[in-house]
Amino acid sequence: MSDPSNSAAAGDAPQPGPLLKADRSECLGTGVCVLTAPDLFTQDDDEGLVVILDESPGPDLTDAAREAVESCPSGALSLVEADDQEPERP
Amino acid sequence: MKGSETTMTESSASFTPTTDPHEGEQSLRRLRFADGHLGWFTTKYSTCRAIMGDRRFSQRPLRPLGGDDGGFAEALSGPESVGDLLRIDPPEHTSLRQKLARFFTVEQVQARRPAIERIVGERLDAMEEAGSPVDFASVFALPVPSMALCHFLGLPEDEREGFEGPTAILDETFETTLEEKKAAMADFYDFAWKAILDKRVNPGDDVLSHLAVDEDLSEEQLKGITFLLLTAGHHTTATMFGAAVIFLLADRERWELARAAPIENTVEELLRYLMTVNIDMPRTALEDVEIDGVVIKAGECVAVVPGRPGGDLSSCPGFHRFDPEHQVRGQHIAFGHGRHICLGQHLARIELQIGLERLMERFPTLHLAAPVEEIAWYRPWTCNFNFEVEVEKDPLPVAW
Predict the structure, then answer these.
(1) How many angstroms away from the CA of A32 is the closest CA of chain B?
(2) Of B106, B330, B339, the CB nearest to A74
(3) Fewer C-beta within 10 Å: chain A N or C terminus?
């Protein structure tokens, strides 16, 4: 974890927001995300499975994204926080 | 722990939303199932939700919760249960559910609004023609969801008896025998198979026509799917209509609150508060699972019986009250949770939204035509915390 006071003080570069991810092999097309956060999700016509409309929801939509991830019945959604987006090391 | 076993018995009980009397006690407690199995039950929101969302639990076997279930579980365990989403686990469940998902998306269901408006309008006309007082159950609550299903699946409305008859026999859990239930299932599957064969010859733009020509689906699966689609969406929504009307009319202030609020909020709050379908399929642990400090051993069964009112009462104290101002989307489990969450939840929502909104507009002076204590409404899928399963089938008299 980075020091919050450090990153808040940065100011010269915009803070990367969390990234919204969907695992379509896990998605069951329940539409709960569309109901919870219609600005962020829809369902495709062919399969009815999740389509993310906005992969990096701005600060005003982060709460809605978090709620959708938390309420997804199949656990197909995740929100990858900025801190975790560093390249993985072996 | 072994000293406080609970068993379930069948009998009637009064309709009053009640908070969970077990709140504050251990969230998972011992339950002696009807077949003698010693398992568990929980009524706590967060525990119910966790178990419903946990892949380490299976939908099989279907174990009767309490008393003599009149052969209900056995009647539902024929070879066709391979098509009943509530009875199967991944990976079979995943592929079948994904196949059905596209018919039940928010957008697909929204496109059915004009048809639901027509159906609701017809039943309100029928109420008016019958005159005050009238039995709301038989004139509105039961037919609206049934006609909506006919439209959605592509069955002629005048053939409703073909599935309403057999399902009524099944739902009268304690009044009908195993033989009667098995015969009803056979009648139902005959009806379903005839409808599917007919769709192969005369397809329409409906769910059944699409499923009928899917080569991946066996005859058993198709029969099982049709059973699930026609039963899961009928008495459930009908019960909700009846319970909502009793609840709102029992206190005029609620009726007025409901009329004033956006209908989406009112319906969502009614779903949360009334939790009319709170008997879920029991889940069996596939491995040892630790939840709330208790280890549920592999093979042990848990009855998931969410409390009323629904939602997380400990983090939202306001949830003890009914208030359409509550923002409850995603915070109730009236449609379940996890991969077995109700497939038709969006359809149920628009039926309830359109049905209740038009009812309140058309009959603003609606009231109960009998004292609320005397109204025993048909609610086969609700369960009180004393674990009495409610099975009354009586009229719901309303007047205006």
Answers:
(1) 7
(2) B339
(3) C
Q: Which pLDDT value is given to residue B392?
A: 42
DSSP label at B139? I
Closest in A31, A70, A74 to B106, CB measured: A31
Bridge partners of B10, per DSSP, are B389
Give per-residue pLDDT as tens, A10-67: 445 566 789 999 999 999 999 999 999 999 999 999 999 999 999 999 899 999 999 9
Count CB pairs under 8 A between chains A and B.
66
Cα B113 to Cα B118, B129, B152: the distances in Å are: 9, 24, 11
- Within 8 A by CB and 6+ apart from B57, the residues are B51, B283, B284, B285, B286, B289, B302
d(CA B382, CA B248): 18
d(CA B400, CA B221): 46
Give the Cα separation of B79 and B218 in Å (integer): 11
Amino acid found at B333 = I
Tell me whether B107 touches chain A (CB under 8 Å): yes
How close, in Å, is residue B300 to chain A by CA atoms?
A: 23
Q: Is the pLDDT of residue B10 over 80?
A: no
Is the CB of B95 inside 8 Å of chain A's CB atoms? no
- Specify whether the CB–CB gap between B10 and B66 falls below 8 A: yes
Whole-number average pLDDT of chain B: 86
Contact B93, B82 (CB under 8 A): no
Q: What is the DSSP letter of B25?
A: S
Nearest to B250 by CA among B334, B171, B107, B368: B368
Q: Which element (helix H / strand E) includes B164?
A: helix B161-171
Q: What is the distance between the alpha carbons of residues B312 and B332, in angstroms, rounded to a whole number?
A: 8
Q: How far is B163 from chain A (nearest CA, A)?
A: 26
For B332-359, give the DSSP string: --TT--GGGS-TTHHHHHHHHHHHHHHH
The two three-digit tokens of residue B236, written as one number = 């459930």
Q: Are the C-beta atoms of residues B172 and B391 closer than 8 Å to each other? A: yes
- Considering only alpha carbons, which residue of chain B is nearest residue A27? B98
**Pairing state of beta strands B367-368 and B294-296?**
unpaired
Contacts with B101 from chain A: Cβ below 8 Å? 28-30, 43, 47-49
Q: By CB neighbour count within 10 A (0-12 exposed, 13-18 middle, 19+ buried), where does A27 fall?
A: buried
In sequence order, the β-bridge partners of residue B6 are B31
**Residue range B38-59, pLDDT digits in tens:** 999 888 899 999 999 999 999 9
Determine whether the interchain pair B329/A35 forms a contact, defined as Cβ–Cβ distance below 8 Å: yes
- Residue A40 sits at the vertex; the CA angle it makes with A34 and A43, to the nearest 5 degrees, is 45
pTM: 0.88
